[in-house]
Amino acid sequence: MSEYLMTHNQLRVGILGLGAAANHLHLPACAAASEKIKLVGGCDISPEGRQKFKQAEVFSSLDVMLERTTPDLLIIATPPSDHLASCLLAIEAKCHIFCEKPFVPSLADADKIISAAHTNGVHVSVNNQFRYMDTHRAAFQAIDNPGFGELRYVLATQTFRPSAQTEKGWRGDLTQRTCFEFGIHVFDLLRYFFKEEPISIFASMPKKHPGEPDLLNTIHVEFSGGKTATIILDRLSRGPEHYLDVRLDGEYADITTSIGGRACFEIGMHTAERRPYARFRFAFGGVATLKNGRTERILAKNPLDPIREATKYLFSEIVNALINGEKPPSSAEDNRHTLSLVIASYDSAKKNRPVLLSSYTRQTG
User: What does the alpha-carbon distance between residue 197 and residue 217 come to, in Å, rounded to a whole number?
Assistant: First the structure.
């Protein structure tokens, strides 16, 4: 524990990467936690990024920022190809880390970071924030409880239209694109909802041309006891966008969750009973609904920007844990499990067969 933390009961925080993720997610999270953190520096190789950053002293070199500001916690909001080197520098400086997702491109990189963190006594967390959205936490709380029962099957779907804006920067350079950058969120939710690690994966990622990114993912995930999940990530669709829709099938009911605003008025007829119905639905940032036949009950609604609000929530939990000397959530070790499912999916698609996940487990000792 640093002298500043012991004296002020605040974490000194630095941020590496002053682009879109920092401005949209991490600086608002720091502002929301301002009573418990002090932002001491920002670092970016881009002069434009440095010029716009006014919250603290600004640097072009991570080494220099770590030496001059001695942060307790470093937020890493750079492309994933930079994460290994940046994490190792921060760990060597005895600095805890909150790293953007995707964590790193390979399991070997993840293992290097985890080993270095253990050796130096620091914690590394990753911003897989989807499980901290209000809708997903409400769905999780219903699982294994009366009215829903055991979770048996999950269907997760996305229809998304890539554009010049969405593919700008490092994302547009990826050939392993959709599953690596977005699928990692879905795999994290599956592990969260099923409360266990999956057994096997069978993925298909058809491409018209060999060098193009994986615009279509269909992935079948097997868990114990006959529990299964299907992931469909479709970036070929030219229809309406649905950022992420999830259906959870339980013993006694279903739960549906969505990310993104919804407003619709429905009017129709229940054919069997010849009974008319009408209903209006509205949610700013998505909704979780418990369904049993034709009866529905809203469990939770997301705020207008659920990704930003979930990042605030997770960052607050990490800050509280570090101040209290506890292990923070969303650890690198846990995120390595999620990353292994992404890597296994690409391997399965390449081999055109299911793969067992036991071979992707981290070897220790």
Answer: 20
In order of their start, the domains of the chain are 3-126 (3.40.50.720), 131-308+344-356 (3.30.360.10)
Please give the pLDDT value at position 270: 56
Please check whether residue 103 is in contact with residue 76, taking contact to mean a CB–CB distance below 8 angstroms.
no
**261 and 285 Cβ atoms separated by less than 8 Å:** yes
Asked if 69 contacts 14 with a C-beta cutoff of 8 angstroms, the reply is yes
Write down the pTM of the prediction: 0.92
Position 171 confidence tier, pLDDT thresholds 50, 70, 90: confident
Kind plus residue range of the DSSP H or E element containing 232: strand 228-234
pLDDT tens, position by position, 33-90? 999 999 999 999 999 999 999 999 999 999 999 999 999 999 999 999 999 999 999 9
Find out whether the peptide bond into 79 is cis, omega within 30 degrees of 0: no
Separation in Å, CA 34 to CA 27, 254, 324: 10, 40, 17
